[in-house]
Task: inverse folding
């Protein structure tokens, strides 16, 4: 019997923050095709805000019931597309979010696990991105700002609802247009990051029935 492919894939990107005019994550998401390997690609713009980001994405998950969830965010200090391995139960913001909130050393969810592993096939995605000619790496920290907050909230939501959906996070470098006045900072083109993201999504769909990474939680 042929494996049943996921029908809906949710891909999210963030609004600009920290004084930037654009956020490459949403530019990439907007440029993705609407169908990939027979799956419908749902695209969602997420506010760069503690709390609200989780509400917006978990509401979409409840409505759409996507089999695979890819959250993207900007990490301006990075030179490669970074596939996150883990989300930790900590908010520790060094700048305010877009609603003015700046939580320091707080839990994302009180009395919840210290961390969750992302449940997408990290290595297959990394290999696929590199094969598309785009730099990629596995990252062992998504930071402690809104990106880590969102993916922790998503993985916690899936865990408490015993959902079979799988979720992960890709941090992306700046776009070239964002580094014009800081030439020593890394950047990638939009075209490259769209190709890299497409390759990662295709790899995850193809691995959907044979995921090597075992999702779990750390206490
Ligand atoms: N990057 C931030 C939040 C929104 C985004 O695109 C982060 O890395 O936490």
Result:
């Amino acid at each position: 019997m042929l494996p049943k492919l996921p029908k809906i894939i949710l891909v999210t990107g963030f609004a600009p923050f920290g004084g930037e005019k654009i956020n490459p994550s949403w530019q990439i998401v907007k440029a993705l095709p609407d169908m990939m390997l027979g799956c419908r690609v749902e695209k969602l713009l997420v506010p760069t805000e503690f709390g609200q980001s989780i509400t917006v994405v978990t509401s979409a998950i409840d409505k759409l019931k996507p089999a695979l969830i890819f959250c993207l965010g900007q990490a301006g200090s990075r030179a490669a597309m970074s596939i996150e391995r883990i989300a930790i139960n900590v908010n520790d913001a060094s700048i305010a979010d877009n609603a003015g909130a700046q939580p320091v050393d707080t839990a994302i969810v009180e009395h919840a696990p210290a961390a969750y592993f992302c449940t997408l096939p990290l290595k297959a995605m990394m290999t696929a991105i590199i094969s598309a000619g785009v730099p990629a790496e596995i990252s062992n920290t998504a930071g402690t700002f809104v990106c880590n907050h969102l993916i922790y909230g998503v993985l916690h939501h899936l865990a408490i609802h015993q959902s079979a959906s799988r979720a992960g996070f890709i941090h992306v470098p700046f776009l070239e247009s964002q580094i014009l006045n800081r030439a020593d900072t890394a950047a990638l083109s939009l075209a490259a990051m769209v190709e890299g993201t497409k390759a990662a999504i295709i790899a995850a769909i193809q691995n959907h029935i044979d995921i090597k990474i075992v999702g779990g939680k750390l206490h």
Remarks:
- The CA atoms of residues 7 and 39 lie 5 Å apart.
